[in-house]
Fold:
Amino acid sequence: MDMALEVAVAAIKIFIVVNVVQLVVAYMIYVERKVIAHAQLRLGPMRVGWHGLLQPIADGLKLFFKEDIIPDKADRVVFVLAPVMVLVPALVVYAVLPFSATFYITQINIGLFFVLAISSLGVFGVVMAGWASNSKYSLLGALRSAAQMLSYEIFLGFSVIGPLMLAGSLNLQEIVHAQRDVWFVFYQPLAFIVFFVAALAETNRVPFDLPEAETELVAGFHTEYSGMKFAFFFLAEYASMMVISTIGIVLFFGGWEGPDFIPLPGFVWYCLKLGAFMFVFIWLRATLPRYRYDQLMRVGWKFMFPLVMLNIFLTGFLKYLFL
Amino acid sequence: MVGVANTSRIEQQSTLHGTEELVINMGPQHPSTHGVLRVILKLDGETVNDLDCDIGYLHRGTEKIGENITYTMFIPYTDRLDYIAAPSNNLAWVTAVEKFFDWEIPMRAQYIRSMVGELSRIASHLLWLATHALDIGAMTVFLWCFREREMVLDLFETAFGGRLTVNAFRLGGLHEDVPDKFLQLTQEFIDIFPSRIDDYETLLTNNRIWLQRTRDVGIISAEDAMDLGLTGPIIRGSGVRWDLRRAKPYAAYPYLDFVVPVGENGDIYDRYLVRIEELRQSTRIIQQCLDQLPGGPVTCKTPRTIKPPEGEIYHSIENPKGEFGFYIVSDGTTTPYRVRIRPPSFINLGGLKKLCIGQLVADVVAIIGSIDIVLGECDR
Structure:
């Protein structure tokens, strides 16, 4: 009986989280369009609803009813499977993310490891999409994606080691508790810089948005996709942006905890921090040009890799001396 | 990444493993080929081994049309050549035809021609900067530039009624004098424009990513550029101080003071700097035109039917994109016997192959942007 109850509660939580995530993602796209529009002296969506507030819904409906085109020469099975392969890992990760001290789906002792492992599965879907489309532009986009996501996965993985050493746990809850006094960003500025850059690259955001460089590759790996399948890629991209931001908040900015003198519920703190992260992502997109493929790799291997190694060494050394 | 130097080794490898070059077709519906240019790229990974341009998708037979209509009737057709900077084309045509005669063009008309010519240079360079930055991923610059380009187009509208295809000048001067409002609005535009150029530069000039994307990419030496007949900002970016406004002055340029900016390395970044400086210099020229603008008539006495004497002339001006010339053969009738256009875009595009081989796909886009082509005049 207890077992059944637990499953039921978990199912309800999953239902809530998945739906809220979808909605939040839809509105994140709206916010992005608005912020970029104002940076560029435009108004952005204005027509559907007050200041275009219903635009995401209209877009969703439009994508839902659009004709679903599968190119003749495409590998049908893989072509259909690819968007699912991208979206599912992006959503599965939410299983372990702590949104507040009490609100999470589950808590596992290797939470962070789980996040990194599952979110890196998304690259399979990208490669599958590029291959199955049977289009040269898609293939180039997919190859770029694969190379980029794999290399930056490494820096992302190494950059979280510093905070881990300080917290002494892979459990996301405990990492947050370890930062009750000081946020790790003050102890681990180097790790945070590397983490942030790797996060940008990992989520294919400007200035690392090469896989979908519209002006070179038209749209990259999802050139041939339309309708809901395209929407899956889009949702997955924004969902993983939120995942990465959440991880950044948990590791470096004290998760849902805020300063004691401002009494706000944990969930509100989390939302505020998430919003700030998202805003920086969007701000960068409005400001920066795009790196070139080889430059991206150079930045990664020649600059970030030594930096993150140095950080691990320093953290270990200082911890040995002072703690 | 694999450079050009390793090509032979790759060839060996490819015979071993049976790999072949990836041929991709860029355009004519590609977002960064600036119109309907089609580029056929042969890629090794992401490195360009070879490329071919396929043009002609916008061919409208403008030269042939010119043989069948009068000299005056051809002016609106020139609008549609380099449609980004239509008044410049009008200027090239009218000054070319006027070369047949010894008309005394009134100074007021000359100054207005120079002024409008420089405005069209600003309009053209703004569109270039907007799309070039967009190609490299800087999206915001695109809309910032369009804000000012819109102002220039509004100025054209005030003066001539048209925005894109303005049909600005007539043989012997102007159709009628520009309204005072045009001069006043131009002054207002000139007052704010330099600070707007600073805005673009804040986003790009010292941006590390922009520098990495443009410096030492798409280099062409002064010698090669001259051999290929390149003109305009490209050759000036390579360090050749060649500007027809200086070399063979027309309109009011002999009386105007301006600097011809040149680059050093001939890479994309230098071409960028040259054009940005030209924006500033154009602003200066327009200011001088406004200050020195004489009164008087805007057109000289011209015959009712334009019948140039038998003979041939070639006349070219400094278009925003390079040397824009007309070669006209007259048989003494009201229509030209032959009209030949020297389009800067077409000839500058000839340098594309030289600039691109050995670079990466992403650079091809940047290089096409830095050449600044308009297919309207390229295909004619």
